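User: Hi! I'm working on a homework problem where we have to compare a predicted structure to a textbook description. Could you give me the structure for the chain below?
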Amino acid sequence: MRNTISIASIFFTLFVIQIHARTDPRPCTTSCGDIHNIGYPFRLRGDPSHCGDPDYELYCDPNNRTILDFHAGLYYVSTISYADRLIRLVDVNLATGNCGLPYRSLGIGEVLGDGRYNRKYSSPHATFVRCSEEINSMRNNIVPCLTGNTYRVYLNYTDFMLYPLDIPSSCSVFSMVLSGSSDDRNVNFPTTYDDIRRKLQFGFDLTWTVECRDCLADGGYCQFATEETTGFDVARKKITRHNFGTPSCTLLQSS
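Assistant: Happy to help. Predicted structure tokens:
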């Protein structure tokens, strides 16, 4: 009987410690290069085990740049705002503004399906499209370093993720990257390759959602309150953007 009580006490103690660590993490901050405020839920690779959450691990590269490895893509961390729960990321291949593809293709579907992150604002995408025929309406969007004699590569910027049905039959989508940040004050989109290339140097914002990660792990699904804001482009065409607020968790009932 005494052994049974002891085992139960140990189990209960471990359970309480686990819950406490999940909801009340010990203070721990570190830095890498220009990012000086790395704290919960983030941690740097090699930090003590009590620092941050393993699902939000960053690392410092040899050039003292903070990197997030996300879905096999590598992104420089430009800023972290704990007040707004925003992290700004720049694809490592696009940060210098050179002509080329992102390190890895990333669309909004992968972000939403992950659970750890979400978009706080609407989700513009820059999409690399390869076409066997020239598209006259896209002549200002040719990617020169990727275009060959028998095909053209265009960089298209939209407020949504492109699908095969959205492009001509002679074209195919072969890479994309997220764009857009909380600093975007103008609803106008870049319209030329050079404009888009420069915009991608500034990266994109994600909001982290530890609550959604835990909700999905518990078998529930996460929902976000949505706020709409409206603006107009230069042609006075109405554009609606969506801002996503605090997440709420709905646990599924087991049968």
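For your comparison, note the following. Residues 2-23 form the longest helix (22 residues). The chain is about 20% helix and 35% strand. Good luck with the assignment!
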